[in-house]
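Predict the assembly for these two chains.
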Amino acid sequence: MSMKALNQLVARSIVDPSILNAFSHGEIGTVMSEMDFTADVRSSLEQLEANSWAEFATLAYRLVKAEEDAVRHVHLPSPLEGLLPGDARADEQVA
Amino acid sequence: MIPITKEERQWFLRQLALGLVEYLGVTEPPVPVEQLLRNPPPLYDDDFGVVDMFSNLWDATFARPPTQRGSIFVRMDLDPEQRRYALARELLSALITSKHGRKMGLSDLLLPNLRESAEYFASQLLAPEHLIQAFQAQGGNFETFARTFNIPIQVADHRWIEAA
């Protein structure tokens, strides 16, 4: 969700001067509040310190990607699932 | 400028290309790159232009005389697909050196790998992923891909594999 929003934000920035103006005036949070960033990610992005918009975009990409990788990792099933003693699926297979 | 990986640079370039494609309202190939250069977004009015030239030295090159409008000087005898690719490639230099591009900080990010960045940007601009996916969903095959997108066969080859 946040990566899609970040993609849209950076894509717009090449043709829409209001994005850069907001960034230059420390108001990029206002622009992001109108987009589909999660609250946590938006809060983290607002705290990034960058010397330019391009640098901000790069740091934002790292942050959002790390966030999404972490979520994906949490949702991945363990390779041990169904093999541990007492696990319902393991029991079914034994039976 | 912070160090940046190739993957991060390519992500950034993809978004810039997509922003331009969306600005043009392109819903099907080919992407009208020359139209973009001749009628750019208003903030690039003083930065984009196309000048046809006789030359045996290069296919296209971007130049911005001091205090004047930037232009891409392109060989007038190029095949249409080669011309489109050369214009798209040099467009990145026009963006980087534009007033807006300088404010964005594009030069720090992209100049160290300009040639590679420009070629990647051109391939993404002329064959954006969502248009390739739509083309494939409609039964388009590799044999007609290059012709439909009006891109050089080498670029088509690369983009087809990337989008797979």
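Chain B touches chain A at residues 1-2, 4, 8, 11-12, 15-16, 18-20, 22-23, 41, 43, 95, 100, 103-106, 108-110 (CB under 8 Å). Strands of chain B lie at 50-53, 60-63, 71-75.
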